[in-house]
Task: structure prediction
Amino acid sequence: MPSMSQFLEICNYFNVTPQQFFDEGLHNLPLYQKANDLLKQLDDDDMMAVIPILNRLTAKK
Result:
């Protein structure tokens, strides 16, 4: 078991908060962060083009 300071270093390395580390709802946090970083680079027109695709993909679940 890591010490608290080691645990915080692990969280820092993965760029997650301790809460995110234990959140079972976040299945692949680095992948979500990558997608989020890419979405932040889009302008409004591109974002409007992506939203229907996301809606279609999430409707399958």
Notes: Residues 44-59 form the longest helix (16 residues). Residues 4-59 form one domain. The CA atoms of residues 11 and 17 lie 6 Å apart. The chain has one domain: 4-59.
